[in-house]
Design a protein that fits this description.
12 helices; 6-stranded mixed β-sheet; 33% helix; 5-stranded parallel β-sheet; alpha/beta; 288 residues
């Protein structure tokens, strides 16, 4: 049996009982380590599971699936995924490869940022399309996400913005020279995100992400408990003015609040989030 097991959002204890049973029955355990991360190191997972983990980077998952799936038709093999197994298309791809080989498969779900984002006080069914924001470079500044945010805004819906992480990435020079030298991990912060959003708005001039009047919710370590989780609400301009420590440790996420903000959502935000003097903006937005 080939298992894809969701680990949840925070630490080794977030795995479900069904997932833990599958882990303990598996002859090999792979930890997918590039689409997201937990707040604990691999060693804590190994201690909790009582088994060693094989770190599976992007290259292994995407190009060496045969090795991961080896003997899965006669013994249990598990791929462990932070969040939920279907949070990334890569996991769907390896599942389809396993089924094409006649390997029995099973998916064990868990919490992901896609549903846990409700912790900010906004109702999940009022969210539109989710978008990703990548680190800009001097030569690559993709802004196609802006159109998705605009479509959500036209419907009055909220937008979850997933912020980029860079794990086991090579510089352009090392990649060109074929050198297996990797850059230190990087995690996009709220300040980096709102700065990039402002740059795109300045270039597009579509009025979708105007910093002074676009209400947003910044979140860190969702699902990590009261000592780790942080929720801050304000306009993009207000968020940009805050010190980095205001937003807590990575991983960070950002929500662009839609214009159809219900009064109950506004009230819940006021009770859950650290607010940056955005009462008037929030009152203007809550129109339904």
């Amino acid at each position: 049996m080939f298992y894809i097991i969701g680990l949840g959002l925070s630490d080794e204890k977030d795995i479900t009982l069904r997932g833990l049973e599958a882990v303990r029955s598996s002859s090999r355990l792979y930890l997918e380590a590039y689409t997201s991360i937990l707040t604990v190191r691999k060693e804590r997972l190994e201690e909790f599971y009582g088994k060693p983990l094989i770190l599976a980077d992007r290259d292994m998952v995407e190009t060496q699936s045969d090795e991961i799936l080896r003997d899965a038709h006669i013994q249990d093999v598990s791929l462990l995924v932070v969040g939920d197994p279907f949070g990334a298309t890569t996991h769907t791809d390896i599942l389809l490869r396993a089924r094409a080989l006649g390997i029995p498969t099973r998916v064990i779900h868990n919490a992901s940022i896609m549903n846990a984002i409700g912790a900010c006080g906004l109702q999940l069914y009022n969210f539109g399309q989710t978008v990703s924001l990548v680190f800009f470079t001097d030569t690559w500044r993709p802004d196609s996400f802006y159109d998705r945010v605009r479509e959500n805004a036209d419907l009055g819906m909220h937008t979850l913005v997933l912020l980029d992480i860079k794990v086991k990435e090579q510089s352009e020079e090392n990649l060109a020279r074929g050198r297996k030298i990797y850059e230190p991990p990087r995690y996009m912060s709220i300040l980096q995100a709102v700065t990039q959003l402002a740059e795109v708005e300045d270039a597009r001039r579509g009025g979708v992400l105007v910093p002074e009047r676009t209400l947003a919710v910044a979140l860190s370590r969702v699902g990590g408990g009261p000592d780790d989780e942080r929720i801050v609400c304000g306009t993009l301009a207000q968020l940009r003015e805050q010190p980095p420590e205001m937003f807590g440790e990575p991983l960070h996420s950002l929500v662009i609040v839609g214009r159809r903000l219900h009064h109950l959502e506004a009230e819940k935000q006021f009770s859950l989030a650290w607010r940056l003097g955005m009462n008037e903006i929030c009152a203007e937005t809550a129109i339904s």
